[in-house]
Design goal:
It is globular, with a radius of gyration of 18 Å. It has one domain: 3-Layer(aba) Sandwich (Glutaconate Coenzyme A-transferase), CATH 3.40.1080.10. The protein has an eight-stranded mixed beta sheet, with helices on both faces. Strands 3-4 form a two-stranded antiparallel ribbon. Helix 1 packs across helix 2. The chain is of the alpha/beta class.
Length: 270
């Protein structure tokens, strides 16, 4: 059975979701995985998007949280303040599903700027927060999701560009710069419980909170993972191989992506 690394990542992430979950979904890879889960093994999962759509069941993947496909297929739509104040801050979200531009060894996320100030306050060469190398879209609802969801799943492609020892800017707190940001803070969720990439699955070490490889995807080597990670990554003593995708999962994912591409191309051509 043939599949791509991206398909392996998406379907592995989809398997992390269950029918009894209420999931706050980010756009992009998280949305892809969450909707595949809904279309396969988790038909009763409640998908919520930042725009206020509840129990949405899109036929194609949304381009943004404002995509009409989300509200048209939702059970109901509430205001953004209600979405955050009641659903998220009220403790009704089981899992937040996020993507990112940068992630570090303590699962802090950066979607704000690349090449900004370092943690010690010194500028990174000629770049600063006010004059970054790249300015990204920002946090959106991710900081609140990471704070208030009962747990957080992250899915992102694995490369040294993305997996850095320290993010240039902490948009969304995982476990802080030292791994202790959530210690003794009772009103926060668990934080990131898994990072799913196209190479492996990482989970925080129970003691240090540093991300540790617990499962390697078929055909991937330890050396590949080390080469794609910007810090000296650790591996679990109980390392396992990630199960391969099933033909049913692959068919659902491919049909969803094809349908999405055709729909968006049709809209652009109008």
């Amino acid at each position: 059975m043939e599949y791509t690394p991206s398909e392996m990542m998406t379907l592995t992430a989809a398997r992390a979701l269950r029918s009894d979950m209420t999931c706050f979904v980010g756009i992009g890879l998280p949305s892809e995985a969450a909707n595949v889960a809904r279309m396969t093994h988790a038909p009763d999962i409640t998908l919520i998007y930042e725009s206020g759509t509840i129990q949405t069941k899109p036929d194609i993947l949304p381009l943004s949280i404002g995509d009409g496909e989300l509200s048209e297929s939702a059970l109901t739509t509430v205001s953004v303040p209600e979405m955050f104040r009641y659903w998220l801050q009220g403790g009704h979200i089981d899992v937040g599903f996020l993507g990112t531009a940068q992630i570090d060894k303590f699962a802090n996320l950066n979607t704000t700027v690349i090449a900004a100030n370092h943690p010690d306050g010194q500028k990174s060469g000629k770049h600063s927060y006010a004059n970054p190398k790249v300015r990204l879209p920002g946090g959106g609802g991710a900081p609140e999701i990471s704070t208030n969801a009962k747990e957080v799943l992250i899915t992102v492609k694995h490369s040294v560009r993305t997996f850095v020892e320290q993010v240039d800017f902490v948009t969304t707190v995982g476990y802080g710069r030292d791994g202790k940001a959530r210690d003794g803070v009772t009103n926060l969720g668990k934080g990131p419980t898994a990072v799913i990439t196209d190479l492996c699955i990482l989970k925080p070490n129970p003691e240090t909170k540093e991300l540790t490889v617990v499962s390697i995807h078929p055909g991937v080597t330890v050396e590949q993972i080390k080469a794609a990670t910007g810090w000296e990554v650790s591996f679990s003593n109980n390392l396992v191989t990630t199960p391969i995708p099933s033909q049913v999962e692959l068919n659902v994912l491919r049909k969803l992506k094809l349908k999405t591409e055709l729909a968006h191309n049709t809209k652009r051509g109008m």
